[in-house]
Amino acid sequence: MKICYYYVMKKTLVLGILAHVDAGKTTLSEALLYAGGTIRSLGRVDQGNAYLDTDTQERARGITIFSKQANIDISDELMLTLIDTPGHVDFSAEMERALSILDFAVLVISGPSGVQSHTKTLWKLLRAYNVPTILFVNKMDMSGVNLAEIIAELHSKLSLKIVDFSKAVGCEEDDEFYEELASCDEALMDEFLESGKVSHSSIVDGIKKRNIFPLVSGSALRYQGIDELVSVIQKYMEAPSSDDEFGAYCYKITRDEKNTRLTHIKVTGGSLRVKSGINDEKINEIRLYSGNKYTAIQEATAGMVVALTGLNDSKPGMNFGKGYKENKPILEPVLSYAIRYPRDVDATQMLNILKEVEDQLPELQVEVDDEHREIRVSLMGTVQTEIITELIRDKYNIAVTFDVGSISYKETIEDVVEGVGHFEPLRHYAEVHLRLEPLETGMGMQFDSEVSEDLLDKNWQRLIMTHLEERVHRGVLTGSPITDMKITIVGGRAHNKHTEGGDFRQATYRAVRQGLMQASSKLLEPYYDYTLTIPEALVGRAMTDIDRMNGTSELTESADGIAVLNGRAPVATMHTYATEVAAYTKGEGILSLSASGYAPCHNEEEVIASRRYNPDADNRNPSSSVFCSHGAGTVIPWDQVFDYMHVPSCINGMKRDDDLNNIKVIRHKENADQLSIGTDEIDEILNKVAYSNTRNGYSAHKGISADRARANREVKIKEAVEVEYKGSTQKDKYLLVDGYNAIFAWQELKELAKDNIDSAKDSLLDSMCNYQGFTGEEVIVVFDAYKVPNKGIDAFDYHNIHVIYTRTAQTADMYIERFANNNSRKYDITVASSDGMVQIITRGDGCRVISSRELEQIVNSMHLPG
């Protein structure tokens, strides 16, 4: 294979092509490839021979699904790396991932269609990612297209800084051109008034700073305007500066035809060679792709976009070496689907396959819904479900289907609260205090710290911040992700001997949840911006439909019998409307949709009632805290945590007295008698630290009381749901563990048992103590003693769990089966055993059954220290 060292000698620019679907984006990419000599003939999307539409589904559907790369020798001095991105709204996440590596973009506008709703979304994204942008108005060869009208529309709907650069191509720049440039920026105006023109360097700088947006027009299909576009790129686009120190940014993961994992990066500084290391992994190969072919190179330098083999832990958005700009995705899937797969396919196998697909499509957000025993994925729309179905069928030979889909809701809060989390099972300790406060719509999640390092070590603060950022926090109305909220660390405490990293994870998660349980929450739903083009005679019908959908509508255009409506509507009511439009307009109507963020849910009570979510029963997101009592963890409900916490309240960021000795002790005697930490240091703290919650006349806990929190939620939950959860009898939960079966199934315990079986048993019991403290379930660990002669059942409590040694001639299996048979109607029982017969018998008694290895995975997933 050819070693391409010549790439590093040239000016390298990464160009992204973006457009609304059917604007001619891929056709323009073909024309640029032809102009640079990369291809010898122009391919066409409708003929299935476009250079960059390499996927079979892309060729069959005539759309771009995956972003592709091609290299173009524009001149002896300039090398373009072209990134062709999807235009269909269902694949917007793939498009957005490419924005992080672009030096500039070409936004393609369809002359006949003008600015569509998705065009506005692309414009917002380009602004958010700060990408210099050229506009190419395409399909100017079609009748009735007027460039002046299009530019006026672009000025009205996108920016007044869009300037027609046709006058600057192939001839001297004139006064009219300079005047247009000067109107874009105050500094340019000053320069023009002083010298009568705008310098070339000022134009280049203006484009780079997004103060000028060049426009070129033509027809990509007929190769009109392509040379002018190339000239603008050569003359005015400048590669960003780079450092000598190595840096790179991963923007996507793919797999080749041999299933080799490829990490696609842009080198942002320095250079990278084959066999060098990144994050403790070695690079086996560096590939420079162009279409579906690649050249293996020995070194990649700043500005190059390459694919690496040998990396298994990389993921989109990851930085390597010197830090690069970090951009959290703006566009998110708005629909959630349960995936259905054949019965002969193991659930674990299916989950692993989906995780591999998620590696390439992070927006899938694969998760297991334990309550409904199903695997769910998040997607942008129905076309994407079809693509995923075909991808899994072709690559893994498994036929999957999706359910009808449900809306991806979010939640936020409406007031400021303090959340407290305490985690203190046997030989562990951490306490965290957080302030939760609402943000403006669309601001997402923000995290900060206001704690002095004198009160909480910087390393612990960093750990808390890591745990805040590492997971999706769930709300208490429907269990949907929280957004538009700021979380600030305002207090916390560690123990010199007993605190481990996992302790702060648990305390942090519980503090967030405890705060949410107090707050007044509201439900948010995703919205679409839409553009609806229909015959004028049907405007009344359309506006009535949109009003029924709880949307807004505005008649923005009406001419020649065609009307255009623009507005906003909930995804829940509009995502299937395109089919209805096609029916009542007899195929003449066109509905264009684009994601428009989240807003308050139009039918909040109905959604909350239908979800039937009980926050107190969500063991994955506990709001309770764990305090030490009699040498074991004791679960304290969220609304009682303030009575037991060890650090005084700090609501609204008010600073505590630095001298803890001056804080008056206000401790409830009954709580002091019940809870004993067992170390001199913590006892001393408890004797000094007050539960003084009153600051400047404001009582934190009275202001955000459990009663008020409950009342806030009850307003939003229908009586039917309240009756179901509060009126019905909840069964106590029991976990029965086959002790020796677990020891020889858990790898760590198995190795320990080789040296000392008693040590393995103690380790298992300690793990189950912490499990009990985390879940609140009753835990019974059963060990065989059936070979011991003349022995009865030996039952005792080990801290907060129960331990059984069976009697003579009774195995652990027999005890578990008998207990399940006698008590399955009274209790909600889970049996943890890998014995097939035990599983069959206890499942028949109505028990939930998991294997011993599954129990190990559950314990590990809870990040329980041990």
Description:
The chain has 866 residues and is an alpha+beta fold. It has a seven-stranded mixed sheet, sandwiched between helices. Strands 14-13-16-9-8-17 form a six-stranded antiparallel sheet, with no helix packed on it. Strands 38-39-37-36-40-41 form a six-stranded mixed sheet. The radius of gyration is 31 Å and the shape is elongated. The protein starts with 10 loop residues before the first strand and ends in a 5-residue tail after the last helix. The model is unreliable at 1-8, 652-705 and 715-728 (pLDDT under 50). A hairpin with a 4-residue loop joins strand 19 and strand 20 (374-379). Helix 6 runs antiparallel to helix 7 (186-195) and helix 12 (458-469) crosses helix 13.
The secondary-structure class comes to alpha+beta
Helix content, binned percent: 25-40%
* Rg from Cα: 31 Å
Total number of helices: 28
Let me know the number of strands.
41
Main sheet makeup: 7 strands, mixed
The low-pLDDT segments are: 1-8, 652-705, 715-728
Strand content: 25-35%
Mean pLDDT: 84
Numbering strands along the chain, what is their spatial order in the largest sheet?
Answer: 2-3-1-4-5-7-6
Termini separation: 53 Å
Q: So what's the overall shape?
A: elongated
